[in-house]
Amino acid sequence: MTTLQECRTRDAQDPLRSLRDHFSLPEGVIYLDGNSLGALPRATPARVAQVVQQEWGQDLITSWNKAGWVSLPQRLGNQFAPWIGAGPDQVVFTDTTSVNLYKVLSAAARVARADHPGRTQLVSERSNFPTDLYIAQSVCQEYGLELVLVEPEEIATRLTPQVAVLLLTHVNYRTGAMHDMAAVTAQAHAHGILCVWDLCHSAGAVPVHLLDANADYAVGCSYKYLNGGPGAPAFVWVHPRLADRPGATFAQPLSGWFGHAAPFAFTPDYQPAPGIARYLCGTQPIVSLSALQCGLDIFTAAEPLGGMAALRAKSLALTDLFIALVEEHCAGHGLELATPRDHAARGSQVCLTRGEGLGVQGVGSGAYAIVQALIARGVVGDFRKGDGGKHLDILRFGFTPLYVGFEDVWNAVQHLRQVLESGEWRKPEFNHLNAVT
Ligand SMILES: *Cc1c(COP(=O)(O)O)cnc(C)c1O
Fold first, then answer.
1. Which GO terms describe its cellular component (predicted)?
2. What is the pLDDT of residues 232-257, one digit of tens each?
3. What domains appear along the chain, each with residue ranges and CATH number?
């Protein structure tokens, strides 16, 4: 049995404790939703004001050169590359995850068509994030592939010489379950299948080794664990053996001028830039990229404190503690753990499920209302709807080791216990569904 005092001691001994001061979190809030929208870095408002007032307002168009706007996607990519096990000049921050996924899936489909003509399938997980599946549907239509959706335990057996591309999200957004990237990639490559990894719930949250895992393509989000701000530009990585394949045939399909070999030559014909730069499309959102840099700078500050190994150790300690405290203090209220207990298979979040029929007057699960009641108490997690079948309603809690502490975990669980024991979640105001859950 863990006590509040023990949690406080762990905070006092936490080598990453000082990183919390890099964030501006509202008083009285325990923020367990950094896996959906990261918190505001303290440096961001001043940085954004400087870009707007000085670089834009005063220096105007000269800032493309003078302030280095033109290379910002590449510079941020190089700054962050080590955190996902990528090399220099292999990552750019640009566009959204959905758009980048369209680029890399299309590029993979083009390569597969050239190297293994006759392959007919793109395989993904049925419980993948919806936008990933929507984009995959469009790419399949365009390249004449069939989208085959499987359960996680079926993946190994569904990797056959029929398959052109495998698209997986490293850490599942609902359950927090994590794939073994190196093992799955090796299985896929044994059949000549290209692997596309979505790192939205892993970048900055768990160790990622793209080059060591020999992955082919990766995309990921920067407004979650990277704290770049709402709608911050996503990243894209392509293994150099694929990024540098010569010829426009293998370039990604959104052939805009920022991905051209010489954008300011203004030639009429498209010539892809070498390497990852061809994954840029149009003019970049400089204000958003500048805000993102403040988020990435906190990772740079985490390096001398132990880097990803320290972040991962703390993240697992936080999720272990949350699981143990929920089981100790909140038993008997219909909550079940959906996140793997095995560290090797767990991301940086914990999901609790609640079955149908446990809601007010037996309607729904009550999971949404419990989350709303917690938010009203300043404990911010989120709710993800079940599918009415195998996947139950979920209460989701993200643990960002940069700013969440052990006492936060203790307090969050006490609030959850009180919400459940008092029945306050049954109040009508917590049972009214908002547009964004
Ligand atoms: C958050 C998330 C996205 C978001 O895509 P956007 O284009 O930024 O809206 C995509 N895929 C996964 C797996 C995610 O978790």
1. cytoplasm
2. 999 999 999 999 888 767 789 999 99
3. 4-16+307-430 (3.90.1150.10), 48-300 (3.40.640.10)
